[in-house]
Amino acid sequence: MKLSRLTNGAMDFNSNYQALIHRPRVSFMISEYVWKYIYEKYLLKLRLMSEEKYNYHIFLSFNKYNPNIHKFMFNSAYNHEKCFFWPEPKFRTVNVTDKWLTISLTAECIDENIIPALYASLVYDMFCSLLIILYKKVKKEELDNLKAGLDYEYINSFPFPAPFEEQKYLTDDGVISMTHDSGKKRITKLLNVKEEYLKHWGG
Fold this sequence. Notes:
Blueprint: E1 2-8, H1 15-21, H2 28-46, E2 55-64, E3 83-87, E4 92-94, E5 98-107, H3 116-134, H4 140-146, H5 152-155, H6 164-167, E6 175-182, E7 185-192, H7 193-201
Parallel strand pairs: 1-2, 2-5
Antiparallel strand pairs: 3-5, 4-5, 6-7
Helix pairs in contact: 2-3
């Protein structure tokens, strides 16, 4: 299983920049730990997602909730006030052996201040929101009970805010666009992700 993280802004001209500055500043290892926990404690026993012929890749997309924009949300069993989960209903097959899928979380608490423990709890629910619609064998009640076993001492042992190199979002090696008005023209420039992040937050 490969996990990748994405962030999205508020759908304005500078949403990429805002998403960079206000993204969860937690270690990518927390997502990895949560998935490994669910897989080893639950999925492996059910022999789910264990086929060696496939390479699974899940994209975790984190979005800041905006009531003016997010009016119609997916009806997940894990939704609660100002917190919405939207898993794709099935994997897409890419290059025969690769299976890709995105789980989106749109929540008011998605920002630069979210602490590792809350982030881990939400990521756990992201995975669960997917699994209960993907496999009939998976039971929400069982996953909810299993959640109590997460090792929060381990989760909170990661530095917070995590260093840039330990966050590992999908765009971290690339550039983002930022647009501003200059008189009658709208000017767009490309910004280096790492440079802009460190310029705002420091090393």
